[in-house]
Structure formats: structure tokens, C-alpha cells
Amino acid sequence: MSANPRRALVVIDVQNEYVSGDLPIEFPPIETSLANVGRAMDAARAAGVPVVVVQNVAPADSPLFARGSVGAELHPVVASRERDHYVEKSLPSAFTGTDLKAWLAERGIDTLTVAGYMTHNCDASTVFEATHAGLAVEFLVDATGSVPYANEVGTASAEDIHRAFSVVMHTRFAAVVTTDAWLAAVKAGVPLARDNIYASNQRARANRVPA
């Protein structure tokens, strides 16, 4: 973790599909996360932190994010703001099949701040890959979000998924913080710390209520 982090804000897949389309974000409330995405982008611009906008595009016959569809378009909160780099992707991680890693390396970026959607899919994939690439990672917990799932394995609410992935990421992969905490860290030019697996597990075991 760098004492003077060289950050880049990566805004992942803030597209109409998640707001007014067929995959609406449910937790945190979409109004909250969209507002915080905008705040983060504005603060990054003011602080000289480069902003990368990522857009997921699927084949034209896909039920979600179909190329050329309204759902695949960037939401106005992101589309109306300036960016330093644009990445189009078709797989969850913003690194896979893109120039993102090289672009960050060319600029000496050592800390990646992740906002956008979805917490458990494209965000998590990007966070994991960034960690494996040796980058420090920050995850803006209230500028991201999840949807609920139900399949043959079981069901999970959007809140449960968002919380579980956020807890897991903070144990090893990213400093999971609010947008307000991140804004303060950017202003101060200081890093944000994640937790670790051992300490997180020890706390959970200590807090367990005996049967």
C-alpha cells in the first residue's frame, strides 16, 4: 500500500440496464449509488485522479446489454461527465481482453478505486484481478450495488449478496469504504487500509453466541 497513492477511479458498467432496464440494482438503492458515482467522478476530476469508464456490451441478440440498445447505453450520470479513458468489455473483469492494465501501468497507477455495477460480478472480478496484478484496491461500498438471485442452489437478496461480497473483499482484496471516507482520503492524499482474513475470522469466532 503506497504512502502516497497514485489512484485511478474505475467506473464499471453504469448503464441504463441497471437503472431502467431488465436488471435493476436493488441494494444499495440505485438513487444512492448513482449519486455517489457522480460525486466520486467529480472529486476525482477536481483532485487530478484519472477516471476510467467501463461499458459492458453483449451481442445484438442478447437479453441484456445488447449492442445498440438503450439498456447498453451509459447512464447520463456517467455519460455527462468527463473521463480520461474508455474501456469496452464483454466479460466481467474490466481487465480481460482490454488495455486497462497497460493504461494504468503507463501512468504509474498503484491504487485502483472501483465504483459501479455489479458488486458481486464485474466489480468483484475486477477487484480480484487488480489485487493479483499487485495493485492496491479500494471499493466504494455505497457507489456500487447488487441484484437478487434465485436458482437451483438457493436464493439470496440483493442486500445479502452486496454485504457478503463487501465483507469478503475487505478481508483480503480491497479497502471497502464509503464514498465520504474515500473523498476524505483523496483530499488528504492518504491510503485506505483493508482488513485481513485472520483478524476477520478471529472477530467472527469471538462474537459467535454459544449454543
TrEMBL record:
EC number(s) stated in the UniProt entry for this protein: 3.5.1.110
Record keyword Hydrolase present: yes
InterPro entries in the cross-refs: Isochorismatase-like_dom, Isochorismatase-like_hydrls, Isochorismatase-like_sf
Class of this enzyme: hydrolase
Keywords, alphabetical: Hydrolase
MF annotations from Gene Ontology: hydrolase activity
Pfam families: Isochorismatase
Ranges for domain Isochorismatase-like: 8-180
Keyword Hydrolase found: yes
The protein's name: Peroxyureidoacrylate/ureidoacrylate amidohydrolase RutB
